[in-house]
Automatic annotation (TrEMBL):
The keyword ATP-binding applies. Residues 1-155 form the Glutamine amidotransferase domain. It comes from Mycobacterium kansasii. GO terms for biological process: 'de novo' CTP biosynthetic process; pyrimidine nucleobase biosynthetic process. One of its GO terms (molecular function) is ATP binding. This is CTP synthase (glutamine hydrolyzing).
Length: 202
C-alpha cells in the first residue's frame, strides 16, 4: 500500500489504534478526539481556529525531507535527501510518535529539522509494502519518468504476486495428451473429429 498525504495520516491513525489508543483520530475529522494523533501544524493553529483567513495558508509547494538511510523510501529514491510538493494543514502530532512507534510503524523521513513527519513505513516483515508520504509525488510523476515511489510500489506488487504464483504445481494429466492429429477448429456436432490418416504411398 502507498498512502499519499491523507493516506499517510490514515496509516498513522490505524497504527495508533492498534496500540490501544482506540479513539485516536485526526483533529480535522473529529476536533474533540481525546487522542489527536493528526493535528494542526503549530504555525496554522490560529488560522484553523478562525483567528485569521484560511486562504493561502496551507503548507504549499516544494519542501525538503531527510530519509533514514536503511529505509524503504531511501532505497526507492536512491537518496537520503529529497524534495517533494505539499498541500496540507494537518500533520502527525509529535506527542504521539513514541506510542505509535510501538506498533512497528517507522517514521522514516522528516523535515530537515526533524519537526515534521514526512514519510512512514512498516518493515517488510510486518507488511510486504506499506509506505506513506505527507507529500504529493503524483505531481512530479510523468508517463515516461514515473516517480520512484510509484515504481517501488508497482515492483513490490509484482514481486508479491510472483511469490503467490511460484513455484507452479503441475497437476497430473487424467486425459491422454493429444498426438497432434486433431484440430480444435474442425468439429462435427460440437465434437472434435480426428483427421484422416495420410494415404500410404507405394
Amino acid at each position: 500500500m502507498l498512502g499519499l498525504c491523507l493516506g499517510l495520516q490514515c496509516i498513522v491513525i490505524e497504527a495508533a489504534r492498534s496500540v490501544g489508543l482506540s479513539q485516536a483520530n485526526s483533529a480535522e475529522f473529529e476536533p474533540d478526539t481525546p487522542d489527536p494523533v493528526i493535528s494542526t501544524m503549530a504555525d496554522q493553529q490560529r488560522i484553523v481556529a478562525g483567528e485569521a483567513d484560511l486562504g493561502g495558508t496551507m503548507r504549499l509547494g516544494a519542501y525538503p525531507a531527510v530519509l533514514e538511510p536503511d529505509s524503504i523510501v531511501a532505497q526507492a529514491y536512491q537518496s537520503t535527501k529529497v524534495s517533494e510538493r505539499h498541500r496540507h494543514r494537518y500533520e502527525v502530532n509529535n506527542a504521539y510518535r513514541d506510542p505509535i512507534a510501538r506498533s512497528g510503524l517507522r517514521f522514516s523521513g522528516t523535515s530537515p529539522d526533524g519537526r515534521l513527519v514526512e514519510f512512514v513505513e512498516y518493515p517488510r516483515d510486518q507488511h510486504p509494502f506499506l509506505v506513506g508520504t505527507q507529500a504529493h509525488p503524483e505531481l512530479k510523476s510523468r508517463p515516461t519518468r514515473p516517480h520512484p515511489l510509484f515504481v517501488a510500489f508497482v515492483r513490490a506488487a509484482i514481486d508479491y504476486k510472483g511469490g503467490e504464483l511460484l513455484p507452479v504445481d503441475i497437476p497430473e494429466m487424467s486425459e491422454p495428451v493429444s498426438n497432434g492429429n486433431e484440430r480444435r477448429n474442425e468439429h462435427r456436432d460440437g465434437v472434435a473429429q480426428p483427421l484422416p490418416e495420410p494415404a500410404t504411398r507405394g
